[in-house]
Amino acid sequence: MPTSRTLPQLLNDARSWFDQALQAAMTTAGAPPVTPTQLQLFAALDEEGTTISELAQRMGVTRQTGHQAVHSLVAAGLLEQIPHPTSDRKRLIRRTQDGARAHRQALHALERLEAELAQRIGRQAVDALRTALETPWGDPPAL
Q: How many structural domains compose the chain?
């Protein structure tokens, strides 16, 4: 059943489905409430830490938006800032122990959500979607 919606719109809807379900699962687990931007930031973090500039770039947001999300998660006790090992001017952002626990809970919830999606649309469709999204697309074309 074709639709007039664009692929980016459909991908956004799919992401929203996961974000809403993940937020509900985390609330049920007793985690502090977070915004979709904060969820995205959490997923973009490296285990050893990441600078705010790198996080903002990975998330596709401004440095200011990344900074605001980081500081709200620091205030919630889920992230911390530590000195950068090679630069006195930079700071690394990483998960606290509470943040690492919340991250593990989120990963477990996402596994359950993927299993639920497979029940709804079929394992073959989920596997095909995963394969398509994991396949390198190359640089964006100049049209």
A: 1
